[in-house]
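User: I'll paste a sequence; please echo it back and then give the predicted structure.

Assistant: Echoing your sequence first, then the prediction.
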Amino acid sequence: MITGAAALGWRLARHALDPVADGDAADVVRRVVAVRGWPAETADLAVRVRQAEPRPGGLEHALATGDLIRSCAFRGGSYVFTLEDAASLLAARTATRVWETARYQQQGQFVVDDWERLREAVRDALAAGPTTRAELGAHLAGIPALRHLADAASRGTGSDALLKPLHWWGVLCFGPTRDGQSTFRLLEGDPGWPGPLDVDDAGRRACLRYLEAYGPATTSHLAYWLSDGLSVPRRRLDGWLADLGAAVTTVDVDGAAMLARAADVDELSAAEPSDSVVLLPAFDPWLLGPGTADPRIVGAARRSLVSNGARTVVWRGAVAGTWRRGRGEVAVSWFAEAGSAPVARLEAQVERLAALLGEESRLTLEVV
């Protein structure tokens, strides 16, 4: 049997939270599979708290060089991935073919017959480099057959529904922000882009990658990630898990049957609990992967607080409090149910956070 504390200790190491890693931004993102891409400074901090030698602007640099991409994924939001993981997750998102439904077409102000013309027009618009929404709309306005889509593309009204399938198909992704405005860049033809993947192959890989980063996990955890997050039909997900056969096994975690990659069982069996404290930004992968409904990570009474974007204090893998920045201080609200606060460890984390943010800070602590 594997204890829950040891399983979380193993996962903390996988996430480069205990210990932190020597790798660059791409290595960190690969470890956690996906990082919420907006706000940009929050995504950057999620990467840097996991690095032994954090490089300011490292995430932005990895996006600029194409080592990482930012695209529309979970629950319609923008996320940062390696190209390999993006290819799998975005292909899995297409399992529903939602763009073929009348409701989705109404939201995007298009009809299915527009797709091929739109795809070609977008390729043309992005061929010279990253393009803003307004520039893309102006390009569509100049094409008689697509003029009716110009307003949706340029103003953002319906543009998410209009353009998201182009993200999922790997036609485009987000480019660098220009004067405060989002841009899109062409993803097709990128040397690192694997190209369109078979949906079922992609789904099986997505299951394994989730277990690699967030295991041991239940089928409910996988459903939260892929069904709730990417709208994959549950029967499709169940089929992918069945197809994986011996690559996935069942392990006993505190008496509960959970799934793990067979390749990880020896490491899990030898894992030790962690006594680490880490200060995490809002919507950190540590929380978004299993979801705030996982009581091992977030107590039920604190779920709404974390879901609404609180910055969290994680002790031994579980949320034990929240933190906020003030003038010269990091104020920690420690949850009473977490027990006595490890003050020395908190002070060390506040010192590290201050170094990451380039400012002097001291710890203030209250129990709530």
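The first strand starts at residue 35 and ends at 36. Residues 292-367 form one domain.
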